[in-house]
Amino acid sequence: MPCIPLFDTLNCVKRTSIHGVSPYEAQYGFSRAVRVGNRIHVAGTAPVPELGCEPEQDAFGQMLRCGTIAKQAIERLGGSLHGVIRTRMFIVDAADAHEVGRAHKELFGDVEPVATMVVVAALLEPSWRIEIEVEAMVGSETGD
Asked: Model-level pTM?
């Protein structure tokens, strides 16, 4: 994996990227998640269904699907949901806030990360009601 210089060329931090299920990753040139040092950043994660499965229709189910995708990415990079420190939720309808928040609590309530929920005009696919970003830490600070 490439070494990313931090502050000077002598101090490098390992960078690891992984890909997920979104067809847009290859098309638009991004990774599902990147780990640099002990930080994991999970990209905007939409409720893309598993191959052969029907997409979730309601906001609660879509949020759980987004959380599952993020969790898998974090675990593949050596972290866990216990290390999640920040979430960002982008919703297209303010009326979905309660159901999205309820699913957020189910996914992340044990660690209570800082969180932001904003209403946006639209997401890339018209059927998507939610998209999330997640940041996590790996190491003794989080108990991992």
From this structure: 0.88
